[in-house]
Amino acid sequence: MQSSDTPTLYEWVGGIESLSRLTRRFYEHVHEDPVLQPVFAHMDSAHSEHVAAFPAEVPGGPASYSESHGGHPHMIQKHLDRHLTQEMRRRWVELLLATADELGMPDDPEFRSALVGYPEWGSRLAVINSQPGASADHHAPMPKWGWGEVKGPYRG
User: Fold this and answer.
1) From 63, 77, 80, 123, which residue has the greatest number of CB atoms within 10 Å?
2) Residues 103/97/37/34 CA torsion (nearest 10 deg)
3) Domain ranges for the chain
4) What is the rounded (10 degree) CA torsion for 47, 50, 53, 55?
C-alpha cells in the first residue's frame, strides 16, 4: 500500500511540464529514426502535446486525456490497422527510454522500473491492437500505473 506522503509517479517525474518536454523531444527523435519515422510521417505538429496528456494521466496526473480526447478507447482507436511490428515496438521503447536519459529524468530504480514497465506493457497492447481484425473496446478503462504495478495475464 502506498503511504499518503509517497508521491505519484506523475509528481515524481515533475508533472506535465516534464512529460511535455519528454514527448516533444521524443517525437523530434522519431522524425529522424528510420524505423519509426514512417509510422509518424503524417503526425501534426500538436501531436506531442496531445500525447503528453496520456502519460500524464496514467501515472496519477489529471484526467485531461480522458476528458478532452476520449480516454483509452480513443488511444486504442488510433492504433487500429497500423500494422505495427515488434521491431517498431522495441525501437519505440528504446527511443523513449534514451530520451528520458537525455533529459535527465529521475533515474532511481523504483521510478525506472515503472518507466520501463508501462511502455513495455502499453506498446505490446499497441501492437496487438494494430493488427488486422482488431477492434477498439469502447469501454476500456484508462490504465493506471504506480510504484509497482502487477497486472494479470492479457486475455484479449
Assistant:
1) 123
2) 110
3) 10-129
4) -20
The dihedrals phi and psi of 7, each to the nearest 5 degrees, come to -70, 155
Cell (9 digits) for 129: 491492437
Environment class of residue 26 by beta-carbon count within 10 Å: exposed (0-12), middle (13-18) or buried (19+)?
buried
Q: Are 143 and 123 in contact (CB under 8 A)?
A: no
Query: What CA–CA distance (Å, rounded) separates 58 from 73?
Result: 14
CB-based contacts of 73, cutoff 8 Å, min separation 6: 136, 137, 138, 139, 140
128-152 confidence digits (pLDDT tens): 888 898 887 777 777 788 887 655 5
Rounded Cα–Cα distance for residues 1 and 84 (Å): 36
Q: Right CATH number for 10-129 from 1.20.910.10, 1.20.1730.10, 3.40.50.10190, 1.10.490.10?
A: 1.10.490.10
**The pTM is what?**
0.85
Burial class (CB in 10 A: 0-12, 13-18, 19+), 156: exposed
